[in-house]
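Meet my pick.
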Amino acid sequence: MLLTKPPYRIAAHQLPDLKRHGDFFLELPDRSALLTYEMDGVLLYLIENDPARMYLMTNDNDLFGEVKSRFPVYRSIQHVMIACNAKSMRKVALKPKPDHRKMYMNYSGTVETRGTLQQFQSGRLDGFLFGDENALIVVQF
């Protein structure tokens, strides 16, 4: 049985050394913590103010087992593009991080020794792909 789409949040994180990166948080049912990835701050502009569909590509086989019967899972980027009649897509590289507490789905402000966390974008993830890398697939239609 498919559940509703899982909520995600992208937070822009300004570090004390003035480097900027994004944190991608995903809340899945039956998990006590948020699935967490980091993205390069330079790549944030690729998805800024973009009312697109978002898909998580991951190479984590355990995650595949967890989501395959609950959420839409696609075999390839091409299948995603066909399914939503997409005009174009962008792939934003993600780096897995240790999972974060659920408070970070909503928190904005100072994080001790880590700078300032600010809201960037939030919504619901449209599906998953499993491949040989971790990336956020942003589809335009």
